[in-house]
Amino acid sequence: MKPIIIDAKDKKLGRVASEAASFLMGKKSPSYSRNILSGVKVSIINCAKADINEKKKKDKIYVTFTGFRGGLFEESLGHLGDRKGYSEAFRIAVYRMLPSNSLRREMMKNLTVSE
After folding, report:
1. What CA–CA distance (Å, rounded) separates 15 from 60?
2. Cα–Cα dist 60/78, whole Å
3. Any idea of the CA torsion for 62, 114, 48, 106, to the nearest 10 degrees?
4. pLDDT at 1 over 80
5. Which of 34, 43, 67, 105 lies 20 to 30 Å from 97, alpha-carbon distance?
6. Residue 23, exposed/middle/buried by CB under 10 A (0-12, 13-18, 19+)?
7. What is the 3-state secondary structure (H, E, C) of the chain?
8. pLDDT in tens, 92-103
9. How many Å apart are CA 28 and CA 112, to the nearest integer?
10. 4-51+85-113 has which CATH code?
């Protein structure tokens, strides 16, 4: 089965991520079932050329917590893009759009994101 390729050039981050999440869940296939892994492979390309405006780069904050005291870390989208590339922002967006059940990790294995 050929992977589905989504070109992110000149598209918004959320639109691309929701389309990828829909394919990964299998909602685009006629044999959709919530409890069965669809097996569809999705590839997102040209993440660095996506349409992300300066306000979102400055104001969008990603929060992580280690579980220890003082372990709350905040990072803006712009800083994340400089540090890891914008492909990480797409990966996080798709991850958060998938249902939080035991299939989420398996669905994320079928996603490839490239700059």
Report:
1. 16
2. 8
3. -30
4. no
5. 67
6. buried
7. CCCEEEECCCCCHHHHHHHHHHHHHCCCCCCCCCCCCCCCCEEEECHHHCCCCHHHHHHCEEEEECCCCCCEEEEEHHHHHHHHCHHHHHHHHHHHHCCCCCCHHHHHHCEEECC
8. 999 999 999 999
9. 18
10. 3.90.1180.10
Phi and psi at 51, nearest 5°, equal -90, 90
What mean pLDDT is reported for the chain?
96
Average pLDDT on 53-77 reads: 97
Q: What pLDDT digit, counting tens, does each position of 6-15 carry?
A: 999 999 999 9
What count of other Cβ atoms lies within 10 Å of the Cβ of residue 18? 14
**Tally of CB atoms within 10 A around 10:** 9
Structure tokens at 14: 């959320």
